[in-house]
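Technical appendix A lists one of the benchmark inputs used to test multi-chain prediction within the project. The record comprises two sequence entries:
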Amino acid sequence: MSWKMYRWVWRLEAPLYIGTTPAGQLNRTRLYVPARTLWGALTAELARKKASSSGGSPNYKGEGDKLREKTRLSYLFPAQPVDQDWIAWIPIYEFGKGLLWRREDRSREVKDREFRRWLLTTRMGTAIDPNSDTVSEGTLRENEVVNQWSFWGEKHGDFLPVLFSGYIFIFNDDDHDTLKRELETKTKELFIGGDTRYGLGRVRREYFEEIKDGIFFGIPVDLQKNNPEVRSDSVLAHASIATATSKMYGAWEMLVGWDNGELKKNDLVWVPGSRFYKERNESKDEPKWSIEKDGLWKKLS
Amino acid sequence: MTSYQKFLQVGIALDPIHVGAGGAHIGRVDLTIVRDPVTRIPKIPGSSLAGVYRTYVAMHYEEDRQLKLQQGQQSEQQSEQQSKTRKKPYFPDCAGLGLDQKNGHCRYPNCPVCTVFGFAAGAGQEGGFAGLAAFTDAHVLLFPVPTREGPKWVTSPMALRQIGLKVQGVDDNAVYMEKSSYYKLNLGWLLLPVRECDQISKIKKKRFRNLWGLGYTSDTSGTLDTSGTPDTSGIPDIFSCIPNNLALVPDRLFSHIVNSNLEVRTSVSINPETGAAEEGALFSYEALPRWTVLVWEIICKNPKYFKVRGQDIQVTMDGGGEMDTPKKVCQVAAKAHPYMEYLGIGGMGTRGMGRVKVVYSGDPDSGQSIDSIDCTSPPSQGGDRS
């Protein structure tokens, strides 16, 4: 039983809106793409592309189930273009500092508030009443979005594109090559998140290569298990509280989402960036996590 | 058959365009327009385009419905004809937010407006539909700037990327033109040396000829035709002079040049009793100037892969046939184009603003034979004198 790990990098071709809890009148966005959101976009695109070639109807359930079985997805995190490479920014909680974003190469870190300022903007909108050609009462809204350009905190630099980077693990069996080829050829462009009818959420793949050194966002990953397993003191996805240790700090969140027309509620989960707390006299081993079918992390030891 | 298809739209502003940001900017103008938050270049949000397209498409189908009703009443088979004609008006019902249960969106799987533009579920109702067409933000492709040599249409590598063109070598603080000049050129107040980039002729001949010369005829039929003749009606000589007056600048200068040359108008209310200005009623507003060339995309999904309230989408096209491909979805959306030419987009429409003529609507990759150009030139090249 083994997995092959691929890194992929997606360039924002339009602003991105991944909805989360609103703040007053402001509909806020996440700064990362959860695995479930990505799975949904991949499923939709694969099912429609395959239906195109077969002439039938899209088999969303079949494609979705297959992706769940044969792949594991990491969350996608913002990635900064540096020379010919793309370096991801990873969330991490620090005692006394709160949520920080740290560059994958650990060369820089900034506070969440600052990082949001680098990447986010808001879009306002209102509906026009066709009877009067004036604004419809009570329809003014404001959405926070990740912009497709950023100065990445440089005061005197040029603006650069915003990309998202992450990993996909493909199960290494007889279907591996076919599935990899399908992903490579049929998902070069995706529409992720909300308000896609206003052009939002278009991402184009810039890079898709196998990573053989077994390093996942700077941490080692074991590809020989039922699920890919990582040893890390922080989680880079939502992690179930039930399976995590009480010795963690960070933030909790209630994950909800629509599934086949039904509101699906998960348990409380630790948000990405939450960390494991160790006493001084404890073993230095970092906890082990498995990357589950739904992209959530489950604590193993 | 594809799951979706992108259709590039190129429009030219026949009037200044004001899409308000809904806020004020102290010290500049009172009513500012929407800008990209990083590049600071004005744009038209996709949500504005989507709303305008929806309204005008609803208007088109309502006019068509009224016409059919009139024809039906004159016919001997009046009752039969009327029974075939839809009773609920497309406009205003299927335009706007449409949440009103009685007068809102019809939500029928055979409605060209509700299927192409989607609808939300009303209060206490089940199911919505996202719509088959998505509209990207409209960005500036070419921006007219006054120079001592007459107007030049300024663009940048970032702007040209929107039509699939990768441009390299535009690095100096200079203006890159087809021919070098010994003298500097003013773009508004900014005086820049002129560098030669003979590749601009490639852009002109290949890309812009494709976009304009083999473009879409913006007539009421709304057909997409990549082999037709350009529709230059209403765009006199200025249209043909744009490709001959291209000026390329680095991305970092493009925003400065655009923002320094926006149209700014000042208005005041006149007191009808005194015929003099009202106290405190002076205000100024900015707009993208006339002849700005904008580019956006309509991304159309394949209707075959979607259901509206559990039923297949069955929209009949003008002239027969089903709306069963992304291209036909775009054809329905393109019904809005003739209306945009007269009713416009954005605010201040009663003050001579907003009209846009769509001069190209088609496959972004059709007929393109170049995808990158290089303007790298020896550093010594180009004028240094003003």
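Residues 20 and 31 of chain A are 10 Å apart (CA to CA). Chain A has a mean pLDDT of 91. Comparable benchmark entries are summarised in Table A2.
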